[in-house]
Amino acid sequence: MTEKNMAQARHIVDALVRSRRSGIAATAALGGLALLAGLAYRSLRGGEPARAGAGPATPFDHIDVGEDEARTMLRAMIAATLADGIVDADERKRLDDAVAAAGVESDGRAWLEKELAEPFDVDDIAQQVNDPDTAARIYAAARLAIDPDTLQEREFLRMLADALDVPGEAADRLEAELTA
User: Fold this and answer.
1) Percentage helix, strand, coil, to 5, in the chain?
2) Coiled coil: which residue ranges (predicted)?
3) What is the mean pLDDT of residues 139-145?
4) Global pTM?
5) How remote is the C-alpha of 150 from its chain's centroid?
6) Cα–Cα distance, 73 to 163 (Å, whole number)
7) Which one of 54, 68, 138, 164 is separated from 127 by 20 to 30 angstroms, measured CA to CA?
């Protein structure tokens, strides 16, 4: 994957999140990355709003999501999509549409096909994460990528949360917000 196409990971993740036209994603006026950052922030902090001066960035400052993190998000989203062993037609269309919207060229598409053929497992994903906020954003991306309607998908999310050290309460809050 060329440097140019690697820089498109943020755009692909953003497009995939925006394509979720149900629940919270449908009503969000924010970009997809900002939505993920906000969901993760609230899940970790129990819905506590950001305070002025509380840190270097607000939870909606999607600039904090760099390309490396966006690639990890994309890998987690792909792994979640493949958790039940298949990529159905709707999932594939969402992925293809997101790649097209991001303007990814042929070598970027080849990278994506390789990821689909050999997805990262939860341990590979967790090795890319160094702090609780990033872990929550990665988990939120994986959760938003799927409707966990199979045992395999639910088990994948549980294993991912465990590997990322996402507290159970945070995963539960995220689930409640996404299904509200």
Assistant:
1) 70, 0, 30
2) none
3) 91
4) 0.79
5) 19
6) 14
7) 54
pLDDT attached to residue 149: 87
Q: Which two tokens stand for residue 106?
A: 């042929």
- With a pLDDT cut of 70, the percent of the chain lying above it is 77
- Between the alpha carbon of residue 42 and those of residues 27, 68, 118, 137, 170, the distances in Å are 17, 23, 32, 11, 8
Domain carrying residue 140: 3-48+58-179
Helix H or strand E segment including 160:
helix 151-164
DSSP 8-class letter at 118: S
CA–CA distance, 95 with 16 (Å, rounded to integer)? 7
40 domain residue, yes or no: yes
Q: Is residue 132 part of a domain?
A: yes
Residue 53 lies in a domain: no
Cβ pair 33, 13 in contact under 8 A:
yes
Q: What CATH number is given to the structural domain containing 15?
A: 1.10.3680
Written as one string, the DSSP assignment of 26-89 is: HH--S-HHHHHHHHHHHHHHTTPPP-TTSSSS-TT-GGGS-HHHHHHHHHHHHHHHTTTS---H
Question: 43 and 174 in contact (C-beta within 8 Å)?
Answer: yes
The total number of structural domains in the chain stands at: 1
Residue 94 belongs to a domain: yes
